[in-house]
Amino acid sequence: MTRNDRRDLGLLLLRLGAGGALAAHGAQKLFGWFGGHGIGGTGHFMESVGYVPGKASATAAGLAETGGGTLLALGLATPAAGAAAAGAMAGAAAVHAPNGFFNQGGGYEYAATLGLTAAGLAITGPGRLSLDHLLGHAVNRGWMIPAAFAATAAGTAVVVGARARRLRKAKEGEQEALFEEEYME
Length: 185
Description:
about 180 residues, mainly alpha, 7 helices, about 70% helix, elongated
């Protein structure tokens, strides 16, 4: 097996693993498959963590994950697929960031790993074992990489920024305790 064959096989495995996981998570949001809650339940959750309106947020996240993940697994439109998935994972990481890094504590580790993998695949390309290669890279041109990431970064910044402002505004009315309860006994 040549070095290029190994590289293409490795990219295929990365695409199938990350793309499959992303697509499954998106299907939970969109359709309620794999133990998910569908648009309604996910929409309620999205609102509870500051993404408003909830159903629209659930739909956008579900489409980015399902569509981006499926396209990554197939190796089709890889720049757009990877950027969309990375943007969705940036939104998820923002929710989990207050819990620290590690996933077992509710942190952003998993979202960051999937997002960085998707971004890396978008930049590296899908390899020869892909639909992009089969179609002559018609939807995988070099200029598409910065365009996809610029569009996704702008959209993600607007959505995550609006969430952060909403959460700050909600917290403004809360007053912190002056003394710890254990000292007041």
